[in-house]
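ok so for the tutorial part 2 we go from a plain amino acid sequence to predicted C-alpha cells. step 1 is just haveing the sequence, like this:
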Amino acid sequence: VNAGPSAVSITDLRNFGAVRPRNMSALDFEAGQNLIWNPGFETWSRGSSYPPDHWELGAGLTWLTNALRDSGDAERGEYCLRLVTGSCIMTSSLFPVEYNRVYLLGGAVIPTASGITIQVGIQWYNTAKALLSTEYVINASGFSNSSYTQKNAHVVAPATAAFAKIYLSRDNESGQVLYDSLRLVRAMPSFHAVVNGAQTITNGSTDAVEFNVEVHDIGSQYDHATCYDFTAKFDGIYEFKAQVRADSSGAVTSFAPEVRLVKNGSTVVCVGISANDGNESSLWQFLLSPGPIKLAADDTIEVQILNNTGKSLVLQNSSEDSWFMGIQVH
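step 2 — the prediction. this is what the C-alpha cells look like for a chain of 330 residues:
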C-alpha cells in the first residue's frame, strides 16, 4: 500500500476474504419490508471478531467481552446476538422513517436468568439526527429462560421524526441475554370505539354519536373525548363500519330516523327507517357498512344520527349495541 506522510495507520482486512452469499443471508428479508438493517444478525461481513453489520456497541464497551455472536441458540437462522455483561447497550444503524406513520415493532429475547431486565426499543431522531424520544416494546424482567419470548407493539413516529435506531440493552443482573428476529414494518392505522353512557338525541336534532370509549386506536387518529371523529393523517383508502341501537321509549306514529356516515360535514351514506303505522318497535338498530372510502390527509369521518320520531332517542350503551370502527386498507 502506498501512502503519503499524513497516513497514520492502515488496517488490513484481507483476512476476512470476499463477501459470500452466506454473509448476506436471505433471512434478513421478510414480507412487509422490515426497515431494520440486519434484523436477525445474520450478516457479519467482517467476521465474528467484530459487531454484526449495521450494529454498534455502546460507548466504553468491548466486543467479545461485553457482547458477541452466538451461533448455536438463534431463534431462527444461524446467528443471534448475545449481550454478556451488565449495563450493555447495542444500537442499529440509523434508517429513515416517515413522521406520524404507524409501525409494528417486535423482537425475540431469551435470558439465562429470569431476573434480568431487558429492553428492546426504538429511538426516534429528527432531520438533524438529534434524539427525540425512545419507546419500548420490551422493558421488563421475568422472561422465560428456556425458550424465546416474542413481543410486538405498535409505535407511532413523532411529528418531527425522520430517522430511527433500534435500541437493545440489559441491566446489571447476573446472566446473559440473547436477541433475535427484530422487525419494524409499516402498519395500518385502525380504531374501534363504543358508546359508554347514556346519550339522548332530542326530537328534531341531528347529533354526532358519542363513541366515547376506545377499544383500540392504533395511530391515535380517533378522537373519543371531544369530536368523536376519525381524522386521517395520510391520503389513502379506508373502510368504516358502525352500528347504532336506540330506544324511543314506546311506539311512535310517524318516523324516519337516519344514521349517517359523514365526511368533512357531508353525508357519504345513510341508513334510515320509515313507517307511519304507529305499531313499530321502540328499539331501532342501524348498521352502516359503506365499503372503501378515499380520504385525503386531514379529512374527518364521523357518525351522526337524525331523530325525527317525535320522541327522544336514547342510545344503547353496551359495547355490542353501539360501535364504530375503521382501518386504512391502502
